[in-house]
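### Sample
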Amino acid sequence: ETCAVNNGGCDRTCKDTATGVRCSCPVGFTLQPDGKTCKDIDECLVNNGGCDHFCRNTVGSFECSCQKGYKLLTDERTCQDIDECSFERTCDHTCINYPGSFECLCHKGYTLYGLTHCGDIDECSISNGSCDFGCLNTMGSYECVCPPGKKLHWNKKDCVEMMKCLPNAKPTPKAQLVCSKTGGIESCFLSCPSNTLFVPDSENSYTLSCGVPMQHGKAQPRRNSTLPSCSDSLAPPIKQKARFKIKDAKCHLRPRSKEKTKDSGKQAVSDNCQVTFVNLKCDSSKKKRRGRKSPSKEVSYITAEFEVEMKSEEVSDTCNIDCVRKRMEQKLQTAIKTLRKSINKQQFYIQFSGTEYEVAQKPAKATEGHEACSTGQVLRDGKCVTCSTGTFYSGEHKQCVPCSPGTYQDTEGQLTCEPCPSNDGQGVAGARNISDCGGKLNSIIKDLRQCSPGHYSSDGFKPCTVCPLGTYQPEPGRTLCFPCGGGLVTKYEGAVSFQDCETKVHCSPGHYYNSTTHRCIRCPVGTYQPEFGQNYCITCPGNTSTDFDGSTNVTHCKNQHCGGELGDYTGYIESPNYPGDYPANVECIWNINPPPKRRILIVVPEIFLPIEDECGDVLVMRKSASPTSITTYETCQTYERPIAFTSRSRKLWIQFKSNEGNSGKGFQVPYVTYDEDYQQLIEDIVRDGRLYASENHQEILKDKKLIKALFDVLAHPQNYFKYTAQESKEMFPRSFIKLLRSKVSRFLRPYK
């Protein structure tokens, strides 16, 4: 025998030896006992071929692949979990990665739709937010509102008669204007123990109010401030307004230096005027002197409003109400005169939480050292941050300090905390509103348990009354029960849901019961209802809607917006609501118009268009809107195998249309524009079947991080040098690098 005749009878390699021919087989095959035939080795039979997950035998070799949610590493054996949370745009809010999977979560007040997106819940569409009167939806939350003359109950749902005052409450401390004279110099300070509000209007102006403005016989509390004790005022309060001018000073509320405070320790003559309400407005403006070449001078104006309450105990036999009024007016006028003198000499201070503040300062003083932020703000990580609720700005410590037990603060950037009603100094530090207050109020709330669902009382606490027949209450701590409506009765007293009302018909999901017509009505488009026997439909979250009426699940709510980002170098197009199912009867148009001398490369990693409805949903890419223009790509089917291709035209007009039939996940298609000098090379690569032959290569075209790196280099070739040779080896399998290297070498050979 000789290899020259019929290859010596060998299947593959033949070699002539002294004793005759010797046959051999290539790697991946084994020589059979006949010494001639080569048989493929099934590597998967031994230790799964060394593959972590799946092993597929091929002729002369084998191929490893991974479960969904994992990717094959460059050793082409090991499978590693894909961290979907590391990709851009995976989840709208919070992303949690699991082995082989991931989950999207939404912030409170939002709900998930389209698998990864978060939309605001319209709580007002769910039984009017369980509000007694009106409901106002806000982003991530909602508010119940009340008609004039009523206010929200502490449960934030019910409306109750507005209390004008607390009958047995301990009166809140009043503001005091104290003026004194030492060595012929008048100085005044205003102490604000409660009901203060600091509002920085601009860099050089602010408004400060202290106390509660009065109307005859009642007080008007601001924001959520403590209700005053019931006033025994006999007549309207005494009101006076004054305007003061300070030269060469800016409106900056800054802590007074400790040295100055020590110097003012000895006071000879002092006058004390108790005021009910003070409102100060400080405003700085530059005023130029005419006819002189002098620099602009700072001039600040303080507008002050004072209110003083008249009380019954001050009226006597010798001084009637008019006499008392006259005395009070004179006293207030005298105090304002002294105040004017003290302001002129910059000797007017305001006291909050034991710290005295200067009302206005000379420019040189205002720019000293630490004063980088406005009053009420502190410097954190190089940024000015406003002191949050539950804290106040301490001028002494120059930082935000939590409210002490027995006080609270419900407004940002304030200089003091408000005393709690019935304050006994107990409770938690850092209280953010009056309901967080410690002391007796808190202990009473703890002792009195709320009414349970199906019950109510005038204040929401026990003892409670059971909801009568024909009414229901699903929540604890309420002051009313909701009627079934339409003359319907409940199966029993103490009902906790509308489903306990004995309706004439039982409504299935996707419907709501109309108590007027006693019929089941299909949920309108844009709403859904997943439960049986309800009397409302839930509005779809965010800007989503349903394809049809009668929807039963939030998954039927779809975003109608055509997605994508179109850039000059890279970008992507995305079907509406991706990765959730796209809506019915939608049309999207995208236009990709690259810069001069650039062409378009597109990768379709996967596309899901159901074929059951005879090509009703179509994605088409062509040169223009004209049906006869050059078409690059068109499909109405699902393809899970990726494909890459270059555009047949320099510009691309892309259209996606869906009909009323079946829906699917749709697509997210990235693209890159590249220098047209590389046209021959790019086409050579994407048209080579080896790019798609193995599952490993297919997964590269589906890997968002790898595609991003490839597109980065295609768009800007100089960025190739960002990636080291080692990084490239760790990113791509050897077979892929080998394929690209051969193509690039052949393309560049003419230039060598």
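Confidence is low (pLDDT under 50) at residues 216-226, 365-370. This sample (SCUB1 protein) is used throughout the tutorial notebook.
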